[in-house]
Amino acid sequence: MNPIFTPAKGGGRASEDIALQIEAAIMEEKIKPGERLPSERELQVLFETGRGVIREALRALKQKGLIEVKKGSKGGAFVKEVEVSNASESFSIFLKQQHIEPDHLIELRESIDKTITTLAIARADRAEKQELLRNAEKLAKLNMEPEPDMDKLSEADRNLNIRLAQMSKNPVFEWIMRAVQQGFSSYDYALYEHPDYRKKTIENWQKTALQIFEGEPLKALSTIGNHYVLLTGCLKDKKEEGRPKKQEFMTE
Predict the structure, then answer these.
(1) Residues 79-129: pLDDT tens digits?
(2) How much is the pLDDT for 251?
(3) In whole angstroms, what is the distance from residue 14 CA to residue 55 CA?
(4) How far apart are the C-alpha atoms of 126 and 143, rounded to whole Å?
């Protein structure tokens, strides 16, 4: 471990310098997920500083989610493996806390979906496109039930979005899609609450999947745009329904 670190810079920024050195070692895989960091006493020697500074640096790394501290005889600070689901959930919570306007999220989603769709047409194989089409048909069958299960419909829609992102062959798009789906699902869900919007949304999904399967990028991008026209209209109608009606006065 000795060649990895150098003595901490003096002054009030010692803990920050230590945290950055350890973070760099983790990012460069000099210390890998699951491995234990040197003990606090060993770190004091390596960085030539006091225990308080070391503990402050470890707290900063823990807050970033880079390490976890375990207690007991086999405890200590261990490098944590950041999972996609955790990162997606954190981003989702961030979106919700910021109270972002629906129009801004719709604009983001539409631009992402159009890029993903273009890549999916170019990169996915026939079997993957056929599977997307089959899943869109399954979504339609769920809606044909006498009393459609909203949770199943919402989950099927979410899975279609994630599958489409996977077809782009770019893992970053999949990570973003999972995060945005978690933060955005409450808006998409509105489309499935209203029977007319639900029917149009599912039909639009089937058209999109078919156009991707047939390799029709312009038509597919058009139906992607139509999905967000439907969503904007649905949210507008829902907002109007939620407004209190003006009181009508009777004249004698």
Answers:
(1) 988 766 666 667 767 777 777 788 888 898 899 999 999 999 999 999 999
(2) 40
(3) 11
(4) 26
Residue 70 and residue 67: Cα distance in Å, rounded?
A: 10
DSSP 146: S
Q: Tens digit of pLDDT for each residue in 87-100? A: 666 776 777 777 77
How many CB atoms within 10 Å of residue 47?
A: 23
How many helices (H) and strands (E) the chain has is answered by 10, 2
Q: Cα–Cα distance between 174 and 161 in angstroms, integer?
A: 9
- Is residue 185 pLDDT above 70, yes or no? no
Question: Which percentage of the chain shows pLDDT scores above 90?
Answer: 66
User: In this structure, what is the dihedral angle of CA atoms 159, 162, 168, 169, given to the nearest 10 degrees?
Assistant: -100
β partners of residue 85: none
Cβ contact 197:191 at 8 Å: yes
**φ/ψ bin of 244: left (φ > 0), alpha (ψ from -120 to 50), beta (otherwise):** beta
Helix (H) or strand (E) holding 225: helix 217-242
Rounded Cα distance, 26 and 32, in Å = 6
Query: Can you state the angle between helices 40-47 and 51-63, rounded to 10 degrees?
Result: 110
